[in-house]
Amino acid sequence: MKATVFEKLIRKVVREEIDHALRREIKTLKEDLRDELKPTIVEQQIQRTPIPQNVQSSLKEKIMGKPVSKNFASNGTLNDLLNETAQGNTNLESTLIPEAPMPVEVSNVVNRDYRELMRAIDKKKNSRP
User: Which of 14, 35, 72, 114 could be a cystine partner for 82, CB 3.0 to 4.6 Å?
Assistant: First the structure.
């Protein structure tokens, strides 16, 4: 075997081994980086003082009034939902804010005839190159 052929053979084997070793090392480094970059979520436990049940129910009764349950449907969940809806204030007309008279300045701006102004704007747009 000639020395040049032997040298080329050794170079080829060494190159393949180096490529294989580098791929393996790069793969482990990437895995390490992924592990380091993963966000760790830490949940904090906040200690809340529980509200006594009697205070909670009395406050709800003060705000909502005493609950009156009616049987609207045979489905229990639907019936509970309908009862909650029935207890709320569904009269939307009573919540309307009475209209105050509009100040004269505002009324003049709102009720102004803008046709001439719009024509002037259109004319200016059309005259541009």
Answer: 72
**pLDDT tens digits, one per residue of 27-79:** 998 888 888 777 777 777 777 777 776 666 676 677 666 667 788 888 888 88
pLDDT of residue 17: 93
9 to 18, 19, 20: CA distances (angstroms): 14, 15, 17
Torsion sign, CA atoms 112, 113, 114, 117: negative
CB burial string 6-27: b at 16+ within 10 A, e below: eeeeeeeeeeeeeeeeeeeeee
Q: Cα 83–89–92 angle (5° rounding)?
A: 130
- CB within 8 A of 71, min separation 6: which ones? 79
